[in-house]
Amino acid sequence: MVKIATTWLCCCSGCHISLLDLHEELLNILDKVELVHCPVLMDVKEIPENVDIALIEGGIRNKENEEIAKEMRKKAKIVIAFGSCAGFGGVPGLGNLYSNEEILNKVYKTTLTTENEKGIIPDEEVPELTSRVKPLSNVIDVDFVIPGCPPEPELIAKVLTALLEGKTPELPKNNLCEECPRKKSKEGVSIATLKRKFKGTPDPEKCLLEQGYLCMGPATRAGCGARCPRVGIPCAGCSGPAGNIVDQGAKMISALCSDYGVDKDKEVNPTILPKSIEDKIGCFYKFTLPSALIPVKLRRNE
Hints:
five-stranded parallel β-sheet, about 300 residues, 2 domains, Rossmann fold, 10 helices, single chain, alpha/beta, about 25% helix, two-stranded antiparallel ribbon, 7 strands
């Protein structure tokens, strides 16, 4: 029997829930494996030796996360970064915009619902925060990444089934636009401004980006079937960068300039578009800031 272990680090457990969403297919997989470690389901304290496949959900946010990741790497033959938090840092990675001191003060001292008259920040038996949120690959070697927030159950099944059959899993490399049914105009459209929230109802057939809605499809890995754009919701980029893209946000900015005429249409003021985006980092790096070329907010020395 193939021994499978899972664990969770800085995450919400949504990826584990997606694993359960395999439904009947999960039973087919469980017939071929032995689940030897899974904190979500089992009260097992120690990671066993000789694990064949390890699924690690979540990125690195504290020293305990680092220790667990390193131990799992030492004991597992194959390590999979399970979901976008593990693969790219995920939504918790937006914490890299602030210092640890700012985060702790906010959580324990200044939130409206916090009663902490002495201003004490817990430190006994509390794992020390790392300097920033990191994707799993910054700390250990990762063999495969199953992207998504959470990953599509079908993609999880595809990867696990391939590994159980002794094959190398093949993940989509193209971008989400290539599997999106919405139509792009052949002549191209120049975009002057972008909006995050809908004003009115978008055309159900036309490309959302061409309609001025900030859709991350051009820079995001395919594999979800363009689930959000199909129902009129712009892609937020949760599956991380497509193909060999290093920086998802930079790729999206490049796409806006080259594919949508910002640098070609002389009648469009190129400064208007960036000014129309209130939260640039939240838009372009919502799931991938820790894995970006610049993974933290740079501060001047005062």
